[in-house]
Each structure stands twice: as structure tokens, then as C-alpha cells.
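Hi everyone,

Forwarding the result from last night's run.
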Amino acid sequence: MRFSRTKRAKRTTGAVVKRAVRRGKRLRPIPGTRRGRRRATQAVMLGCVLALAPATWMHAVADSRVRTTADAPAQDVAVVFGAGLWRGGPSPYLAHRLDAAAELYRTGKVKVVVVTGDNSRVEYDEPDAMRTYLVRHGVPDDRVVSDYAGFDTWDSCVRAKKIFGVDRAVLVSQGFHIRRAIALCRSAGIDAYGVGVDAKRDATWYYGGVREILAAGKAALDATIEPDPRFLGRQEPGVDDALALAGQ
């Protein structure tokens, strides 16, 4: 019975193919056939390539510009990206970023620190918490410049360039984020190097790594179409004023 069904299925398939050929129709691969499986494999491979292309672009642009606090090039400005608050102060991940920025200042690698983060709500103020932390760790208050509308990495980079006039900078973030920051700031017109801060391999670290794979697509799109940030506003002299004080 099983053999006869198989033969019947083959005869039916053969008849369908012959009729289609006589009518000049283009045949689609039959699911389960070798050709159909090959095309499905090719489609999966193409999808993987397209998904990984933005991450490949980020690494190509940024890998050679990732440094440590010890070998970072001397620049006038460091830019520290927000990473959340915890009990009103910097989260542990953000504190590590700020520690690295304070070290860059103490060793004379930078003269001014721009802290960029979210202050979209009165009760949530990343830049002020970052400023307080830096001052407590030895960076003079007049050498810290706050960007209160750094709602994401692209916004922070564009605002650093267009609002604060930053042309060159050392960026500070965790290792899983620093390449995206470098790639986006370079796309925004900043000659950027980055310090990738070490972090404990905890759940937050793994989440950040996975998130970066997904965020790479948006980063590539931002770099291509160059949208205005959510809030642009007028130019601010904070960085120039801080550098003038540093030169006194």
C-alpha cells in the first residue's frame, strides 16, 4: 500500500510538471525537493549576511580606534554617554565610565568632560548625577559640560558636534557599546577615539552585547540618512568656555 501511494504521488507530480511545461509556465521549486532546499538555504544565508552587515561596518570603522585610558590619544574633550541611574546616582556601569573619564582628566589626556544623557523628566537627570560624581572624584565643576538631551548615541554625537562644537574627542563607554559610539560620532563629523571600559560579565553585560547586535541596524541607518536629533536647539558655548578656563 505504501509503495503504491508513492508511485501514485510521483505520477501525479510528473503530470503537473508536464502540463506546466507545455503551457510555458515557470516552475517554482517544490517544497522538500533539492532545489527548494537549496533556495531556502540561500535565503537564510542572505538574511544572516544582511543582519550582520551593520555590525561588520561598525567594527571596520571603529576597531582601530578603541583604546585604554593609558594609551588614549590626548584630546581636549572626553564625551561620556549615560547608562542609567540607580537610587539617584550613576548605575555601576555608568560609574565605571565616569571613573575612566576622571582618570583621563587626572592624567592630562583631556581638559574637559562632556556628560551626555537623558533629562526628559524632572525626576530623572543623568547629566547632573554624572557631574556630581565627577566632581566628587576630582574633576573641577567648571571642566564638566552637561548635555541634557543625549537621548541616544546618535543624538549625543550630533549634539556634541552641532551644539557644543566638538571636532575631536575621546569617547568613554563600555566595550560592548564603544564601537557603535565611535562609528556614529565619526559619521556625525567628530574625529573620535574611544575608551572601552571593562565590565563584569553579568546579566547586564550579556544583555548589552545582544542589544548592540540589534542596535547596529539603527546605527547604520542613522549614519546613512543622518536624521536630526530629537532635540537640537541653539549652539551652546559650554565647551569653549571650559577650555578657556583650562588654558588660564
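The first strand starts at residue 66 and ends at 67.

Cheers,
N.
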